[in-house]
User: Which sequence fits this backbone?
């Protein structure tokens, strides 16, 4: 973990204000975001536990494109457009599952290898100009960082390794690639996705919105080591040996060989444009954001634990899930109130406090991405 942590207030830019209304309500800007951001950046789509065996797949929609993420027979993760190369039919309808060795289009039964190459096309042999070997599903690029699978549908994406260079090795001790999910909840939130990012990025709201959380982690003690750019965040202290749970105690084995300092912290990082990562000593909470409309976002939340924690008598995932679910809903509620207010003719950008320097940095990164 990089050592350069600074108090949230020390990274404050004087004069920072919230986003103008159009960025939070306009359908035209929402459509532009889909192209300039979600069709151009690395979007977090899954955790490798969902793609454990060859043939395991998940379906995701990124920038309006249906994508099949699948573990290949070669062990690699592939991302195919869900579009048949025959007459263009959507092929896969299930949100997740396991292909038995091949991907078959339901229309005329062209089948594809898991890596996308055409395996069989009935009655096409001998068709003039038909190049069986040259046909494969169109694919999008895939990158894996700490067990999280990212996709990019852009034509010329920033290479994954250079995009993620600031984070390489940063969280290795938390064992993220090995973790398994105990629970997943999808929340439909009537708020713009950026209001959710801003909410995650500050604890100014914690005493009023999360009184129980504020007892476990002092809201004014946030320190950040990433305070500008696509990756933002840092840590907040918790009682060493404790955790962010209903009981206040750890509820599972530690995620990794964390030192005493790390055991006494919860690390919060946001990853533009759709990942919020919360690393507690005993569990990781992964939020991915899926914008549906200017004022509608699906938030997928997964709780990940050490694989050896499962089945042990001291494993109490509900202690974490229950606490975070309450906290999540408190956040979504104020984000929905925020959305309702910013849609008013009375709204104008308001001043960020020094405790909201990361939210302001997120807005700056967003505006840079929109102007790229
Ligand atoms: S459209 Fe897929 S096989 Fe015909
Ligand atoms: Fe919150």
Assistant:
């Amino acid at each position: 973990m990089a050592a350069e942590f600074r108090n949230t207030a020390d990274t404050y830019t004087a004069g920072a204000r919230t986003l103008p209304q159009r960025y939070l309500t306009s359908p035209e800007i929402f459509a532009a975001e889909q192209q300039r951001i979600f069709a151009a950046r690395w979007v977090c789509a899954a955790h490798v536990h969902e793609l454990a065996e060859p043939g395991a797949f998940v379906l995701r929609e990124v920038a309006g494109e249906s994508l099949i993420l699948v573990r290949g027979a070669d062990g690699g993760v592939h991302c195919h457009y869900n579009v048949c190369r025959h007459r263009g039919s959507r092929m896969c309808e299930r949100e997740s599952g396991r292909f038995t060795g091949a991907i078959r289009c339901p229309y005329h039964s062209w089948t594809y290898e898991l890596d996308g190459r055409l395996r069989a096309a009935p009655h096409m042999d001998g068709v003039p100009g038909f190049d069986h070997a040259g046909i494969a599903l169109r694919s999008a690029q895939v990158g894996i960082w700490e067990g999280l699978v990212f996709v990019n549908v852009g034509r010329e994406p920033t290479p994954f390794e250079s995009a993620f260079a600031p984070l390489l090795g940063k969280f290795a001790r938390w064992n993220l690639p090995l973790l398994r999910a105990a629970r997943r909840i999808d929340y439909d939130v009537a708020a713009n996705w950026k209001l959710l990012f801003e909410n995650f990025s500050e604890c100014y709201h914690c005493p009023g919105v999360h009184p129980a959380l504020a007892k476990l982690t002092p809201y004014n003690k946030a320190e950040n080591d990433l305070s500008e750019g696509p990756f933002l965040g840092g840590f907040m202290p918790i009682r060493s040996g404790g955790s962010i749970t209903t009981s206040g105690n750890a509820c599972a084995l530690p995620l990794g060989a964390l030192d005493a300092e790390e055991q006494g912290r919860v690390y919060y990082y946001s990853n533009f444009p759709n990942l919020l990562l919360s690393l507690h000593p005993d569990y990781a909470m992964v939020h991915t954001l899926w914008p549906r409309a200017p004022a509608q976002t699906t938030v997928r939340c997964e709780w990940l634990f050490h694989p050896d924690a499962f089945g042990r008598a001291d494993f109490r995932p509900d202690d974490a899930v229950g606490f975070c679910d309450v906290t999540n809903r408190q956040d979504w509620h104020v984000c929905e109130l925020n959305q309702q207010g910013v849609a008013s003719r009375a709204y104008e950008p308001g001043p960020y406090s020094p405790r909201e320097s990361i939210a302001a940095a997120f807005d700056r990164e967003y505006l840079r991405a929109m102007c790229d």
